[in-house]
Write a structure and sequence with these properties.
162 residues; alpha/beta; 3 helices; rod-shaped
């Protein structure tokens, strides 16, 4: 393989890795899980009633929402979450709460306060996630092979050794 072939193989590998990042965007999903049932205000956590509260990185403030003030869809979702189910959603607009944002919030239902977490995660089990990981792996292999062929032609591929 000549110099141009090595460069082409390296660039194809690089484009596969970049494409893996782009495709991987489709694998991000939101999850809603119940954390715990709390009494009072544990460990210095302060509850506020207004979801428009401005939070900082070190803020220990959690928004408390009345169960009855939520929409019917949000109440059904929270019933499933508080029963122990992990709910996975595709879009941010489907998250429970007034503004559908990530992070913890407290739900007061039947006199008991429940902490609920809404977070973004990479779901590798989706077609987008699997394609992203595969493209990244193939791209990395192509780039390393181009480097091996260009700079270490006397060495064989490590998996062909006996």
């Amino acid at each position: 393989m000549d110099e141009l072939g090595h460069l082409a193989l390296f660039l194809v590998g690089f484009l596969l890795i970049v494409g893996g990042f782009v495709v991987g965007i489709g694998a991000f999903e939101y999850e809603v899980v119940a954390l715990e049932e709390v009494e009072g205000s544990p460990d210095g956590i302060r509850f506020v009633e207004n979801e428009s509260h401005t939070f900082s990185a070190t803020d220990t403030t959690i928004v408390r929402v009345e169960y009855e003030s939520l929409s019917e869809r949000d109440r059904e979702m929270l019933d499933r979450v508080l029963a122990g189910e992990r709910v996975v959603l595709r879009t941010r607009g489907q998250l429970p709460g007034k503004y559908g944002t990530k992070g913890r919030f407290a739900v007061e239902r039947d006199g008991t306060t429940h902490l609920v977490d809404r977070r973004l995660f990479f779901n590798w089990r989706t077609p987008f996630g699997a394609a992203s990981l595969a493209m990244g792996a193939v791209g990395l292999a192509a780039m390393s092979e181009a480097i091996r062929r260009r700079h270490f032609p006397h060495r064989s591929v490590f998996w062909t050794r006996r």
